Structures are given as structure tokens and as C-alpha cells.
Amino acid sequence: MPNKIEVNQSLMQSNDQIAAAIRQQLLDKAVFSLNIMGSPGSGKTSLLETVAVRLQESSRIGVIEGDITTERDKERLTALGIDAVQISTILYNSTCHLNALMIRDALAHFDLSKLDILIIENVGNLVCPAEFDIGENKRIVVHSITEGEDKPLKYPIMFHTADCIVVNKMDLVPALKIDLKLIEQNIRSTNPTSPVFYTSATTKQGMDELLAWIEEQKAKKPVIRNA
Amino acid sequence: MPNKIEVNQSLMQSNDQIAAAIRQQLLDKAVFSLNIMGSPGSGKTSLLETVAVRLQESSRIGVIEGDITTERDKERLTALGIDAVQISTILYNSTCHLNALMIRDALAHFDLSKLDILIIENVGNLVCPAEFDIGENKRIVVHSITEGEDKPLKYPIMFHTADCIVVNKMDLVPALKIDLKLIEQNIRSTNPTSPVFYTSATTKQGMDELLAWIEEQKAKKPVIRNA
Fold first, then answer.
1. CB distance A96–B125 less than 8 Å?
2. Could you point out which of A48, A144, B4, B108 has its C-alpha 20 to 30 Å from the C-alpha of B220?
3. Each residue's pLDDT tens digit, B185-212
4. How far is B209 from chain A (nearest CA, A)?
5. DSSP A68
6. Which long-range contacts (CB under 8 A, 24 or more apart) does B58-62 make?
7. Residue A221 has pLDDT above 80, yes or no
8. How far is CA A195 from the centre of its chain?
9. Torsion, Cα of B128, B159, B12, B223 (10° steps)
10. Do B153 and A69 touch (CB under 8 A)?
11. Where does the pLDDT of residue B11 fall: very low under 50, low under 70, confident under 90, or very high at 90 and above?
């Protein structure tokens, strides 16, 4: 199917150009940006509720929520006093991931000169979101322990491109037959260097460490990907 | 992006033609086919291990496993004495779903005159697999209760097109704050009629009911989708 590949390559080039422009725009306004990815139900939004509220103690936070449809996640964040906007990909051919064009549209919601951190929660999907640069500075993948030990091996692009891996729902360890060492070993086989945090939005386990990592990345001069 | 849409429409037409030919080929050989879909880690393979072994007591079973990469799921089935073949989509542009072309290739592994039931486990993904007809007679979506109550609302195409919805990992009910009535209500808002089974591969809850449904569908004259 050579036509498909050619057209996709052209679309990807266009996506990367828009993403680079977004990253420059955010850099100009000193906004640090995160792209949070993971399976449906891995706990991205619950984690984000805690992370955004804690970060808001010292920074001005904006959130872009991505889903095929519904505004539920935006409403969850807004209820906590977080400035959030929803992208429904049903308006963009129902794609299974966010792309840079959608982010460019959503940024119109914010006055970037009044933001310090922009957090983007991608569509729940362990495959395609990893293939699209959306102008972020850092990528976080949220992996629930309920998904089993083998997902880092089966979805290598997602884990390989992550700047930080969050192993989530640690409060469920007692209820599961799960080999945490095997999860870490499988993560390390696809991503030998990025930090791994073990978290629970219920017990708040690992939240301090994750927040410290985010603050540390924000304090560094943002890296321009693909520059 | 009109180019993308035109090319995709053309590819979908081609996919649907191959899928229709597969369905006819299976019908000619009296093979009943199932397409099992769901999120990464929703428990599709664990469920399939039980289902395939039980079905094999009275039928000749073949399994096609779909993943981006690894042959782990094929190996799990083969270890139980099930004839299984792996599709790694990394050989097909790393797509996040199976399509009819891949199934046509994988069918070469089987002597269809010696099969009664073909079970296809799709790539773990709640979005795109639902958009591709792969020549199946019936679709099952496996939804883990660990994914929360709102997924049927957020991924409506997957739940709407399912012939049967399996709410899985019921053994974890005591460990979770989960509203099962709300899950069923959300399933019903996108799919008012298909049966819903509550299962656990650990305790075997709901397996008899799910197996009875599969046998019942197999006994019916297979329906030709889109005919």
C-alpha cells in the first residue's frame, strides 16, 4: 500500500512542523509542557487530579484533555479549580490519538503568558499516541499494574519514547498476582534510563517523587526535541 | 486533510472486500469466527485460555493472536494444546489493529476443513480495532472493571458494535471502589441489546454463560455481515 505510506509520511512531516512551532511558542512564553499517555483506565486522570492540584500550589497550570468523545475529564479537572479544555477527536475524524493540529487549536483557549505548566492528557491508547509529537517537552507513560507484566514488551514504542514511566495503582498489589520485578525488568529492556515511579492516586504513594521529577524537568531549560 | 480521507476510504473499501471474502471462505468450510477486542491488559488472553480449552472439548479450535510485537500470546495458547498463529503488526507498518489483509495471510496457517471455530484476538486497543471488519461472525469486547465505569461512554464505537460485552476481572470487585450498576448503565447507553457477561478468568465466574452464548451463536447459521 505505497500510497498510504507516502500520504502518512507527508502528514507526519506536517504534524512535526506544527509540533515544532508549538514547542517554540511555549518556550517563548516559558511554558513547560507534559504529554501524559497510557491505556484506557490506567489511571491517567486520577493521577492528573492530584498532580495538577499539587503543582498549582506554586505554578499556574493549564490542562488539555484528549478523548474520542465526552467532556468528562475536563469537567473533573475544572471541578478542582484547574483551567482545562477538552479535545474530542470525534471532531477530527475520530482519531485514536492527539496530534499537533489539535493542540494548536486547543491552545487558543489559554493566555500562554499566564501559564507555567501545560499538561496534556492523551487519548487512552498504548500505540498511536507515542507516534505523534504534539509539541511537548516531556512524555510520561502511565502503566497500571492491573495490565500485567508484559505490556512494555508488547508496546515498545510507547515505553521506549517515555521520559518517565509511572507504574500506577500500587494500592492493588495485595489483590493481584503481580511480579513487580518482572514489570521493571520488562520496562528496562525497552527503556534502560528513564526514571520509574511507583504510584497510587488512592494512597498517594510515589506522588512526592513524581512531583519532584516534574519540578526538576520544569526548572531545566526546556529541551527542543528534534532540534 | 482530504488526501488522507480519500486514501483511507479506498483502503477501507479494499479491507471490506477482503473481509467479505474471508467470511464467505469460512462459511464454505463451516467455520464460525469470533473477534475478541479490548484494552491492553483487559484480560483477553487469560479469558481466551479458558474459553479455547473448554471449546476444544467438543470443537476443533484455531486461534489467531494479534499484537504489535512478541509471540507471547501464541505461545501461551500453544502451551495449552491450542493450534495458534501470531500476527505481529510490526510486519504491517506497526498498525494498532488487525485488518482483513493480515487475517487472509494468517489463514494460510490453517487447514480450514479441519476447524470448527476460529478465534481472533485483536491488538489491545479500545479504538481502531472496532473500525476494521476482519471477516468475523461475532465480536466480543472484553472490558476490565479496573478500567473504571466511564469507558463505554468514551469509546462508544467499540461497545456499540459488540455482539457481546464481557465485564472481566470480577474477582477484583472487593479490592476496588467500583459501581457495577453504573458500568452496566453506561454499556446500555451505547449498546441496548447485546448480552453482558460478568467474568473472571481466576475464579471462572461467568465462564459457563459466556461459553453457552458462543455455542449458541455457532449453532445458528452464520450471519453474513454487510450482505
1. yes
2. B108
3. 999 999 999 999 999 999 999 999 999 9
4. 24
5. S
6. B59/B116, B59/B117, B59/B218, B60/B114, B60/B115, B60/B116, B60/B117, B61/B115, B61/B116, B61/B117, B61/B118, B61/B119, B62/B109, B62/B110, B62/B115, B62/B117, B62/B118, B62/B119
7. no
8. 15
9. 140
10. yes
11. confident
Task: Say if strands A164-168 and A138-144 run parallel, antiparallel, or are unpaired.
Answer: parallel
Chain B residues contacting A via beta carbons under 8 Å = 1, 3-5, 7, 10-11, 39-41, 67-70, 72, 93-94, 96, 123-128, 144, 146-148, 150-151, 153-157, 169, 172, 174-176
Q: Which amino acid is located at B202 in the chain? A: T
CB contact under 8 A, A169 and B146: yes
Mind listing the pLDDT tens digit for each residue in B89-105? 999 999 999 999 999 99
Nearest of B195, B145, B197 to residue B169 by alpha carbon: B145
CA distance A58 to chain B (A): 31
Chain A residue with Cα closest to B128: A96
> Residue B134: which of B7, B10, B20 has the closest Cα?
B20
Distance from CA of B1 to the nearest CA of A (A): 8
- C-alpha B37/C-alpha B119 separation (Å) is 11
The answer to whether A142 touches A207, Cβ cutoff 8 Å, is no
* pLDDT reading at A1 higher than 90: no
Q: Reply yes or no on whether the pLDDT at B112 is more than 80.
A: yes
List the grid coordinates of A86.
477538552
pLDDT in tens, A192-201: 999 999 999 9
Q: Given an 8 Å threshold on Cβ–Cβ distance, is B68 in contact with A7?
A: no
Least confident of A5-14, A53-62, B117-126: A5-14
Mean pLDDT, to the nearest integer, of B21-44? 97
Closest residue to A127, CB basis, from B68, B70, B175? B68
Q: Which residue of A has its CA nearest to B127?
A: A96
Q: Is the pLDDT of residue A8 over 90?
A: no
